[in-house]
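Fig. S4 source data, part A: sequence.
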Amino acid sequence: MSSRAKNAAASVIACDTTLHHPPDFAMPFPFSRKPLLTLVCLSLTVLAGCATVGQPTAASKAPTASAPAADDNAQDPNAADGPLPNEELTDELVLRFLVGDIALQRGQATLGAQTWNDLAKRTHDPRVAKRATEVAIGAGQLNLAMDSAKQWIDASPNAVGPQQVMLSLLLRANRLDEAKPHLEALLKAKPQDAPSFFLRMHTLWDKNTDRNAAAKLTEDVTAPYLNLPEAHFARAVAYANTNRVPDAIKEVDAAEALRPGWEPAVLYRIQLMSDRPGQERIDYLHSALRKNPDSLPIRNALARELVINKQMKDALDEYNGILKIQPDNLEALVGSGLVSMELRDFDTAQQRLSAAVQRNPRNTNNLRLYLGQIAEARGQNQDAIAWYQSVEGDMHDAAVERLIRLYARTGQPQKAIDLIHENVALTTEQQTRQTLLESSVWREAKNYDKAWFVLTLAISKDPKNADLLYERSLIADLQHNVPAAEADLHKYLELQPDSAQGLNALGYTLANRTDRYDEANGYLEKANTLDPDNPVIMDSLGWLRYKQNRLAEARDLLTRAYKAMPDPEVGAHLAATLFKLGEKSDAHKVMAQAQKLDPDNESVIAIGQEIGQP
């Protein structure tokens, strides 16, 4: 009854927000001129280098901060294009500098931000405004940061840095209308960066952004650049984010018209076509590949679409073509490995997935799980155990379950039981999972009495647990205890009356173990209506048709089921049907495949003897 058991956003442009504090002092300096100037220099070093302090003149004995040297100014991308203000460093300013930094040193971030903002307004110095902006951002004072950034822009109207920071702040505040002139200024200052910027423009928005406003801003900003395919790409993404998919596709088409076979446009368009028929997507990618035959990303996308549409051999051809060009292409290695696994070419699957793990050993837990399954299928049990034991992270539990069943199947049931009970089951759900796993161990070991005992004990504590009842019905069937299996399945269907799985199990039990074919037919037809094209149900119906001597229908159903699910029991049913139809050679071929899959399967053994399989 093995076939029945099978049912069981990205960062925006931003400035450095690190708070720079002056060193701690053991005691306050006396308010003499020299120590005060030293502290001011310590504060100003975090701006753009400490300003040179001029000597007192006859007109004034108060020192002044003069502009940095021209070379220093050129090295700072955020510096003003013109000369810095020659602001007199009065005692009042010195004290304010001290208040600002000492407030930060003592953890009073808001006071520090306010003080530095006031200094920016008083001095009109871009270095002070930059520092004020950084402090306000670090303090979480968004409005104050924007005000300081405005002072910075006013002090350095031609510098790119303050425009970038202001843009970041306005976007964070969802003030897109105000962000527009800053965005336009940045593009005007560096038009050569426009293509790469438009490709990433969608990363400026976060989950709180007004998507319609973002689309309008994208339209306005890209309007002067519609000769660039990247501008159309930016519009396409913005429209898609407002559910204007037809408009998005038009923009992608416009981008492709400017640059035929352009990868970003092709790959995004295939995402936009997710609701279109599979063959339409495949045809589009074939067309794109003709325009850009050297594009491996497009070829990989085509292979993925072929897999999705179950055209496995064609998908494998595409992946193989990629690997001829680029033998270490990670996506093609993984894709071809999984497709080969699906086609049961385990040698190729093992070679490709092993190469993928070597190529990128990080984040390969899913591949390690698959390699364990491949080793199992090849009868390399020790290799399978090693692979399963190496799986960590999200796939760990799945690997443990495979390991448990492998221990059971290889005559090590106690190892499996110990592994199950390594973790204490605290919740009802965890206890049920442990019970089901323990039952599966004894089922794999063909110790059906122990499996029955474990399940019965658990059901006595939780009599309305549908999963436990279903599992016990499987064990009862394997014990040829039809009344018990039938009773548990009826209870199961009382709890879940529209379960295709339960209806299928009851129908199959009646068809396989009794001659109550009409009753079985009612359950199986209802299951098929609830879950059409399920290969497990197709197998049950096909086996019932065999029992009813409706052999042509049986062959059709079982052929479809076996193609979709090459299970040994399904293969045995198909072999029996072919043999009875007189197609003995084909029957023996199918039976040989089933025996290779699981020579110990009850149906494989019984039907193999009936048809005289060598």
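Fig. S4 source data, part B ends here. The chain is about 70% helix and 0% strand.
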